[in-house]
UniProtKB/TrEMBL annotation:
Transmembrane segments: none annotated. It comes from the Bacteria. Residues 242-390 form the Acyl-CoA dehydrogenase/oxidase C-terminal domain. Its cofactor is FAD. Residues 137-229 form the Acyl-CoA oxidase/dehydrogenase middle domain. Keywords: FAD, Flavoprotein, Oxidoreductase. GO terms for molecular function: acyl-CoA dehydrogenase activity; flavin adenine dinucleotide binding. The keyword Flavoprotein applies. GO terms for biological process: fatty acid beta-oxidation using acyl-CoA dehydrogenase. It comes from Siccirubricoccus deserti. This is Acyl-CoA dehydrogenase family protein. InterPro entries: Acyl-CoA_dehydrogenase (IPR050741), Acyl-CoA_Oxase/DH_mid-dom (IPR006091), Acyl-CoA_Oxase/DH_mid-dom_sf (IPR046373), AcylCo_DH-like_C (IPR036250), AcylCo_DH/oxidase_C (IPR009075), AcylCoA_DH/ox_N (IPR013786), AcylCoA_DH/ox_N_sf (IPR037069), AcylCoA_DH/oxidase_NM_dom_sf (IPR009100).
Length: 394
């Protein structure tokens, strides 16, 4: 964007800035040119997804450029990028609506890295880290969405197996997942106690995809049913009854990722808003010369800057092993609401054109709206932030 270099904040090592710049070029040269086709299909009611013909060369290009396994440890063949560098890359990826991610999905990767045993590392983590397997995670339930500690899905021991019964909802990526990480209650604790993570492979008897749920923003989630679903005790991920902590780690990584993506979306919206404001004339005056538009631009630039600093601060602390639950909650609330406002103003500057499905703004706006619910609604995060602040104020 003219006059303001968002990439000039000296927070990343030179080698990490080089990777980020490589990703920037990949987004602009390989992903953004696909947006028109993606938007057209989505507007016609087709799936918001790349075709196999579109995705295959992108994956090949990623391998060629070394953009697979960016935060995977070197022992698994990855680049072992620290979280601050990874979040800078996530920000760049947020600038496009072309639905593509560098494999593997980072939040689940970090959960597996934290607690997978040697056998699980060989069977699941190794191929997952190489981008050869896909996963999803099932946490929310019809009666326990914003409060995952209130889950009722239960696993009962039966010899060397566990029998799982329950229902999960709002689970992403299920049809393409080779396995899911399922959170179920195995103890009598009323909240965090007694929650265990299980690895459940696709095709396991009793693991039923009940229905597909279309979401705004082109996304689709799934409701899952588990009816006497038997998994071997070897499928316990981590420690029996202690699955909440690694799940929380996964959620924190995901919330940082969302904050970075929202920052990228807001950047794209601001770029488009500035370009349009400098070209569009109403009643003989360019929009760029109107104070209302100038304030929108100034506020957007300021809040984008704040959001990036929040992402980098939380990422650095999480990398250092610190508890970032508060920072992650603050970031998720701030970044999603910031991006919603910036996108809305950008759409307003474009007038009727901003309401069309030909521009990426409307799809980004819908996706950000969903993110104000995903991984904990804003109201729940505000409640948690206030509770922690009050607890430490006296």
């Amino acid at each position: 964007m003219d006059g303001f270099d968002f990439g000039a904040i000296p927070a990343l090592a030179e080698e990490h800035r080089m990777v980020r710049d490589l990703v920037t070029k990949f987004v602009e040269r390989d992903l953004m040119p696909l947006e028109a086709a993606v938007l057209k299909r989505e507007s016609e009611g087709q799936r918001y997804a790349l075709t196999a013909e579109e995705e295959a060369p992108l994956l090949a290009k990623c391998k060629e450029l070394g953009l697979v396994g960016l935060d995977v440890p070197e022992e698994f063949g990855g680049a072992d990028l620290p979280l601050p560098a990874l979040m800078a890359i996530e920000e760049e990826m947020g600038r496009t609506v072309t639905p593509f991610i560098f494999p593997p999905d980072s939040p689940n990767l970090h959960m597996l890295l934290a607690v997978a045993n040697p056998e699980q590392r060989a069977k699941y983590l190794d191929p997952y880290a190489r981008g050869e397997m896909r996963s999803s995670i099932a946490i929310s339930e019809p009666g326990a969405g914003g409060d995952p500690a209130g889950m009722t899905t239960r696993a009962v021991k039966d010899g060397d197996h566990w029998v799982i019964n329950g229902r999960k909802i709002w689970v992403s990526g299920v049809p393409r997942a080779d396995f899911i990480i399922l959170m179920a209650r195995t103890g009598e604790g009323k909240r965090q106690e007694g929650v265990t993570a299980f690895i459940v492979e696709r095709g396991t008897p009793g693991f039923i995809i009940e229905r597909e749920i279309p979401m705004i923003g082109g996304r689709r989630t799934y409701e899952l049913v588990f009816e006497d679903c038997r998994v071997h005790e070897r499928q316990i991920l981590g420690t029996l009854g202690a699955g909440y902590a690694p799940m929380q780690l996964r959620l924190n990584v995901r919330r940082l990722q969302m904050g970075a993506r929202c920052t990228g979306m807001a950047r794209r919206a601001l770029d488009m808003m500035c370009e349009q404001a400098k070209q569009r004339v109403t009643f003989g005056v360019k929009l760029a010369d109107r104070q209302a538009i100038q304030w929108w631009i100034a506020d957007a630039a300021t809040r984008i800057h704040i959001s990036r600093l929040m992402v980098r601060d939380a990422a650095a602390k999480l990398s250092a092993g610190q508890d970032v639950r508060n920072e992650a909650s603050m970031l998720k609330v701030f970044a999603t609401e910031m991006a919603q406002d910036v996108l809305d103003h950008a759409m307003q500057v474009f007038g009727a054109m901003g309401m069309t499905k030909e521009l990426p703004l409307q799809l980004m706006a819908s996706q950000v709206r969903v993110q104000r619910i995903y991984e904990g609604p804003s109201e729940v995060h505000r409640m948690a932030i206030a509770r922690r602040v009050l607890k430490g104020s006296g």
